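Worked example 2:
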Amino acid sequence: MSSGASDGPKQVRPFFSPVRAWLRRFVFFGSVILVNLAACYWLYDLFQRLSPHRAHVLLLGVFFILNGLLVLGSFHALFGAWDILLGKKQAVRITKLAEEAGSGPLGHRYAVVMPVYNEDCNRFCARIEAIYRSIEATGNIDSYDFFILSDTRDLDLWVLEETAWTNLCRKLNAFGRIYYRRRKINSNRKAGNIGDFVRTWGGGYEAMVVLDADSLMDGGDIVKMTRVMEAYPNLGILQTPPKLIRGSSIFTRLQQFAMRLYGPLFIRGLNWWQLGGGSYWGHNALIRVKPFSDFCELPDLPGREPFGGKILSHDFVEAALMVSQGWEVWLAWDIEGTYEEAPPTLIDHLKRDRRWCQGNLQHLWLIFARKLPLTVRAHLFMGIMAYLGSPLWFLFLIFGTWLAWDRGASKLSNLPYDGTPVYRWLHIDVNTQSLILTAAIFLLLFLPKILALLGAIVVPRVRRSFGGFFPLVIGVCIETVLSMLLAPAVMLAHTLMVASIVLGTAVGWGSQNREADGTGWGEAFTVHAPQTFLGIAWGLLAWHISPTFAAWMAPITLGLVLSIPVSVLTSRVRYGKALARHKILSTPEELNPPQVLQIADTAQASIDPALDATVPGRHGLVAAVVDPYVNGVHVSLLEPAELTEHEEALIERCLTMGPSAMSKEEMIELMYLAPGMLSLHRAVWLRPSEGIHATWTQAVESYRRRLDSGLAEELV
């Protein structure tokens, strides 16, 4: 990405009135602060009525942060419900703006980019095929180019990607419209991959649709977003809220059901106050290339990983840089055709969270940077607290246990002091005051679920889309119970993540498991043993303190003790399918799949037996050497070169000793040499079998076996 300066947004007046935006943010955050201060004062008054204790100050400090996060989340749902009920005329609808922009030809060219890293090539090609066909159906395909941006390190997968791309282009007649590129050096992960695209090809496009390997978007919605970006030159990023799809295990079905049912409230509430100061979530978004190139070159943070070095959670920072330069970032809350997949098990979810946790904690360097707007700081803060909230919750429970232990060990009776303002105003006892605070916290905790469930029940169309009244209510009950059981295990896992990052352990970069094959009991024990042992010990300690305190701690200790069986059972596909047969935890996209999803589920353009690198005995890189078609495709994607003596020696060693005798770096070097790959191909077919390694002779022999099999069938 260029480091040069860009002209600012062409549109002088922002789309959203600054005064109106300031007023909304004042109302929203002011309400959150007032409610949180009221709850904190209520707890402070309660502590004043009890015997003084050192833990009170610590508990009150942690409560202030935790309850503030709880109020913040609940008020997003509350303001979202308000916006849905009363804000139809005020809420900006991207679909309406697209209609106002007209239906003529698009004025610029656009790119659809999909970074991939060690993924199933047929699956991501199926998604590209579905997006391509759905844009083609709108009549606007000539305005879009597609790019598969590979950072794949597995050499076999590299070859499979090339053959899948070739088949895809041939069957869609899309050569010159769908491109494939593999980076030699995958520096800076996904951000570096996108940055390489912007530097190399970005100048030819007005904007780019950024996808993940598991992303899917409806072509009609992409065209709508494009028209809006053309109509509003101040718009820098248009982010969509993706829906989770294809959940098969109980864990993924829980996630996609909760996001689909409760998510719209949070999305509308978020959009209510952020307006043009939104955030970018890394995928399923349309980004204007020029300002992204000029302003979103990410600097290395001071120091080494995990807190320093390359920025992992680049998307929030890129949006912050765009907003700080006067470009608007919108949330396209009413775009329906935007989808992604989720990790299939709790363990896979936590592995992904480990990477996100480090990336979000790096934002501690940035949240107090100069010249950042309020909305940018708010997004960075919420991202950080998504992970720091867990160790704070853990500390709150530790302080509460300390307080209960100390009071029990002291054998002193609590003689409440009744001179506090709450007693003078309301004349309630200590127990009633405690129950009121507890009830208020539980109301805030469950308010989003209650609002979303009521909203779905009273609207027949929405109720039917989730399977009907009883499946909907049963689904909410199951999701609530399982979420309560999962929450303590996730809390401790996040606490350990934060601790490991503070101690200096950096995260690696691995591909995401997208297949729900289930978690084994051994793996679950290895991962969740700390939660289990802590839960048992904490439960015994709580019972020793008092049965009442043990009952108060039961939701936490029970979730910790049951973390292993809950993790295993929620990973099972068969249980998820059993619920699906009764429409429980089902979503509208599952019960009535949209057309683009149906296309993706049946897409086969990337598969062709005539050009295939998956045959046993000549799989992947072996096929790239032996198979004439695969070799031809691979070589066509390489640059011309002349062989050196060193490279000729590598070729000879690969021929005589086989690919297993070569290091990965040596094989990569060979696979990037067009004359080298051609020389290898000719040699394995022309040399006597005694002069080459058995890997090559067996691969060549597989063709003869196939031919002999065909002749035998004809004779029969």
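Residues 711-716 have pLDDT under 50 and may be disordered. The longest helix spans residues 374-410.
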